[in-house]
Every structure is written in structure tokens, then in C-alpha cells.
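User: Could you check the structure of this?
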Amino acid sequence: MSFDRQAWLTGALVRLRPLTAGDLPGLRSAASDPLIWAQHPDRRRHTPQAFRRFFDEALGSGGALTVEDVATGEVVGTSRFHGYDPAAGEIEIGWTFLARKYWGGAFNGELKHLMLRHAFRQVGSVVFLIAPENVRSRRAAEKIGAVPDGRRLDGGGRDCVLYRVTRPADYR
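Assistant: Sure, the predicted C-alpha cells are below.
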């Protein structure tokens, strides 16, 4: 069975839908704040050229989702499913960012819980690969119940801390 990496997922605060080429202006606007990328390996991702590379790669990945604010319909960020491994019963969630006005509240938690619930229909664990110096993303992963589980190289060959969330035994 294949994993639907571009499902439509809706909560009270956020809606996730497949990324489209038409999302570029809204996502570029949401990503234009340099502070979003301050702890990221590509600190220049707020620039139009660097963001365009990120966007094109996301569009080509087949697993990228656009995040919208349910109340306003505004495009506020993106996330992605990647690396589905049916033999290991695992998938990665990553490449997530939200516009800064959506930080510190319930938006990221709901976004990740929607993605986790979707993933747990087919896999037993979800991993997050986070650069060691990205303290903000590491804390966000811990807030949703992810625990450190060693190290792994990401697709770019960078050393990352691997965080894991395992499907609860009582999951339905």
C-alpha cells in the first residue's frame, strides 16, 4: 500500500493541502522574515532566490503540503512528508515553517498532530531530522512528544539529531 503524502488535512486552526505552483507568492511572503531561518542551515532562505530553490524542490518532492489559516484562508507555511519506508514502518516529517505571527501558539501543534494522525494510519513511527543548532525546531518537536533517538544524516549529508514519535499502543 502506498502512503498518501499529499492528503488534505483540516483542523480547527489549520488546513493542509497539496502544494501547487500557485502557492509561490503566498509562501514567499510567509517566508520573507529572516528570523524564521536564523537557526536553519540555509539562513538566506528568506531571499527570493534561495526561497525559489526551496519552493521548486518542495514542489518536485511529491510530499509537500501548503498550510493555510482556516479562519482567513491565508497561506502561512508549509510542511512535508518524506522518505516513506514501509519495511521500517517509518516516514519523515520535515521542511516545516510557519510565518512568525503563527509562532508560540497552537498552530504548529495542530499542524503536526494532523500529520501524525495521518501517518499513523500506515506507519508505526514518524521521524524528524533536525540540525543540532536548531534549538527552536528541537523544542517544537519535543512539545509534540518527539524524543531524541540518535543521529542520522539528512538528504544533504548534514548530521542531524533524529527525533521520533512512535504510534501509541491504543491508537485507532
